[in-house]
Amino acid sequence: MDAKRIKQILSSSAEIDVKYNGASVWIDALNEDGTTATVHSRHPGLEERSTVEITELVEE
User: Which of 8, 19, 53, 60 is deepest in the core (most CB within 10 A)?
Assistant: First the structure.
């Protein structure tokens, strides 16, 4: 995925399915470096946030 698409997803009111390593995640923010994003799992109880390379995020 690229930074432009992540910005579109962040500004959208729609629920867009994004996966990281096969697991559904919410994108919390595109980081200032423009190459990483902060994400957390969509599964209840798993609120831990991670910084991941945006190229590893896949829109379903």
Answer: 19
